[in-house]
Amino acid sequence: MKFAINYSTPHFGVDPDGIVAYAQHAEDCGFEALYVPEHIALHRGAKIGPVDLPPSLPYGDPLDCLAFVAAATRRILLGTAVLLLPYHHPVVLAKRLATVDVLSKGRMRLLTVGVGALPGEARAAGVDFSTRGRRADEAIDVLRLLWAGGEDGADFHGEFFDFDGLFSFPRPHGGASLPIHVGGSSRAAARRAGRRGDGYFPGGVLTPQQRRDQLDLARATAVEAGRDAERLECTRWGSIDMSAEDVERLAEQGATRVVVTPTAADPARRRDEMSAFAERFALSR
Questions:
Q1: CB-based contacts of 178, cutoff 8 Å, min separation 6
Q2: What pLDDT, in 10s, does the model give residues 153-210?
Q3: Beta strand pairing status for 154-157 and 162-166?
Q4: What is the spatial distance between Cα 50 and Cα 284, in angstroms, rounded to a whole number?
Q5: Contacts 24+ apart (CB under 8 A), 280-284
Q6: How far apart are CA 138 and CA 121, in angstroms?
Q7: Distance, CA of 127 to CA of 41 (rounded, Å)
Q8: pTM of the predicted model, to two decimals?
């Protein structure tokens, strides 16, 4: 099992010194990766399920935050949970992601994308909410196509994106395409992960059996698409105070990575929570 940590900008803030100290401590503790969430814009009355999202929550841009963190760390991988893919143009996004990966020497490797759940956010980004799934599928294809490149450039003709002979440099560090994980608790998200993802990161409130069913669906879809289902990673949210037994249960459900978030409001207390978790699971050994 791999263990990663989440930095919640809406709850922990975007103080630069605080973000750097958090990331450096996470790296020293031995966490594999640092994840950052995204919302493009919020509006009055925004909520996901029963959870209200106050419009003043300071969601920092995840890629800018990760680039900033990369300059102050050496090893920790960089992730998003989740980047709202339909609200980004993939040609611009391909350049941004590759640049972060190059500047971090190959650490932008846990990109997780989702389709968003707020119709008002989609409208603000100029996206038809009902098309966001198809738009995300095309965007994943465009990203991979541009990162792969070719001597004659890349051509793409889809429902939402269209270009001929396009080149996008720099390529990701080492010339390899960046892994793309798919987030979301819907069956559509599971199928998207199977068809196009390198990993699946289901969220939401689901029973253990529903989560097994979702992972089974993702793997079955991968097989149908001619892909190796065994290479599909499964990332799950966990709690900062989880036990070894809790981790074993997630592993039994197919999880290969757990992402946790400290709960303390005070930065020093958050550091203590991270240290205690790292010691409990011997992350630095």
A1: 97, 98, 101, 108, 109, 111, 143, 147, 172
A2: 999 999 999 999 999 999 999 998 999 999 999 999 999 999 999 999 998 888 889 9
A3: antiparallel
A4: 38
A5: 280/244, 281/3, 281/244, 281/247, 283/3, 283/29, 283/30, 283/31, 284/28, 284/29, 284/30
A6: 20
A7: 13
A8: 0.97
